[in-house]
Amino acid sequence: MTRKPYPSDVSDEEWNFAAPYLALIDEQAPQRRYSLREVFNALRWLARAGAPWRLVPHDLPPWAVVYQQFRRWEEAGCFEAMVSDMRSIIRAAQGRQGQPSAVILDGRTLQSSCESGPRAGYDGYKRRKGSKVHMAVDTLGHLIALTVTPADEQERAQVDALCEQVQQATGNTVKLAWADQGYTGEQVKRDAAENAIELQVVKLPEAKKGFVLLPRRWVVERSFAWLARFRRLSRDFERMPEVLAGLHFVVFAMLMLPKAAMLLASGASS
Predict the structure, then answer these.
(1) Residue 29: which H helix or E strand, with range?
(2) Which pLDDT band, with edges at 50, 70 and 90, does 152 fall under?
């Protein structure tokens, strides 16, 4: 690499872990003009800096190359597979089962932009027009599944699809899901039960005064805080919801790669 490094660049150890997931064709294939690692670095830079696609720096691969390769990765499920394997590695290192038996559900509303405005909805509770990202995380806060809808869609309406994705991602190991009061209702419980998951709503104390740390619920709120460090996800800047969903998996891959690479390196050395 002849350019000056960016703080978002992937390290050698992290790249050794990530490369097998991202090499859809051989690294030395004649049609490849740009280093796959540099394309990944450009995607990481964009997620961290929050700039538009067309403002990718000139010392990185062209924005069109980065976007096209990202869409190939997204359609092939590369980052979902990477996040899933890293989640299992990190859980096993802490003495847990590789796949979780419990998850936490919640949604975050992202303000729309001129790009995402045509598919936006109005969230009356947050008083914001935009998109809602419905997420399921394990008890460590790592992403398992998500769906993207207009912000006026209710959380309870997404439980069936979200639980189905959770079971597909974990191999039907999840038995319990915690959620907030936006997931109340008998139909919601039936939707979760159809996917062999018991839904438990964690309610606020009736005499609430000031900040209250809710059992289990704080885990997903911390996951939202992790996402807030990546400016590309501060608002919904994407024309298509699948691109927004894919970037969430990219960000979680960035968050989890240092720890997963360190665990594998320490295991190999021992």
Answers:
(1) none
(2) very high
